[in-house]
Amino acid sequence: MSDLETSQQDNQILVIFRKAPAGSAWAREALDLALVGAAFGQKVSLLFMGDGVFQLLEQQNPKLIGQKGTQAMMQALPMYEIDNLYVEGHSLVERGLDLEQLAVNCQVLNADEMPKLLQQHQQVFNF
């Protein structure tokens, strides 16, 4: 059984990351929402697409532009039982990235799988 075949009751919140990790607070706010939801017993899944895939890269240095990084928060996801991480394959290809460059393990989704993922979640937050 793949992660996409779990029941809707098991996947309550989906947080979608569409923005790059630097230059705004969107990525940090999305991670805050995910961690708070998980801390209150919600089942949380994360989807990275568009420039949001850059959130998954290792060796980011946001201090160079005066921002706090999110890498420590990303590494804390397993402690909050946030295990369902997805990345849109087309977004990786468009940006010349592959799975080996990502700091966390993600399941790659194609365009056909996206609607099914969205339908499985009771709440979807888009950042």
UniProtKB/TrEMBL annotation:
| Sequence intervals crossing the membrane | none
InterPro entries, per the entry: DsrEFH-like, Sulphur_relay_DsrE/F-like, Sulphur_relay_TusC/DsrF
Q: Which domain of life is it from?
A: Bacteria
Give a GO molecular function annotation for the protein. Answer: transferase activity
The record's keywords, sorted A to Z, are:
Transferase
Q: Which residues form the signal peptide?
A: none
State the family named in the UniProt similarity comment for this chain.
Answer: Belongs to the DsrF/TusC family.
Q: What is this protein called?
A: Sulfurtransferase TusC
List the source organism.
Oceanospirillum multiglobuliferum
